[in-house]
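Below is how a single chain appears once it has passed through the pipeline. First comes the sequence as given, then the structure the pipeline wrote out for it. We keep one example in the README because the format questions we get most often are answered faster by looking than by reading.
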Amino acid sequence: MDNDLIYVYCVINNYPQQEVDFLNNGIEFLPVDPYFVGMKFVSSNEFSEENLKKKFTDLAWIEANARDHVRIISGIMQKYTVIPFKFGTIFKTNESLKEFIQEYSASLAENFSAIQDKEEWSVKIYCDKKVLNRQMPELCEDIRLLERQILESSPGKAFLLNRKKNELMEQNVRRLMKTNGQKCYDEYNSISLASHINNILPREVTERQDDMILNAVFFIDKKKTVDFVRLAKLQEGKYRSVGFSFEVTGPWPPFSFVSLKEHK
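Resulting structure:
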């Protein structure tokens, strides 16, 4: 079937110049005064409501297309302030899309005002428990005391004390992962305008051997970007010895800090 549906990426509030042509994959900008909607025509064979539901069971398809969705919006974002739309936003006709934009025009204006000169950054923090475990005797006096007692005890008592030490180490590993993760979050939050904590992802999703302890996004003034990145480097240096590692990436389209509401 011909490309008979409209896939929407984002809305911008400036006339799109030629420099966005590098995207070169069917992106058009539909004018809906005073906005311009970044979109392309797609086939209902793939993007009808029924077929899209089927596609959403294909993780490889979702990953590839969601990545492309963000890539295109990020490309447009290099030149313009954007209000991004969620992956898989489909309209059947130009008219229905224009009606939507007009209905939400006031909310779009509010959102453009809120995100102007702001950026969304992602912070993911991981901890290698094995590394942190090795540091526990240095970090915890009670564990050091138990280790001395184990060396001075009979085999039977040493066995019981060692089991107590392992339990104490596990408790302290969990405590330090939580408290240090919270400290890092608070430091990022102190130079941010807003933040949002996402779900912790399991190893099966991250494909890493260490454990995710923080998954958050932060909304920052562009003037604070240098400070934000500098803080990430300082934290990396401070916590590396206890097994922490950081993934700080951005800027991303402000998915987490845009909310369209119809004005009655």
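The beta strands are 3-12, 28-32, 35-43, 82-84, 90-91, 118-127, 194-197, 211-221, 244-252.

See the next section for the split statistics.
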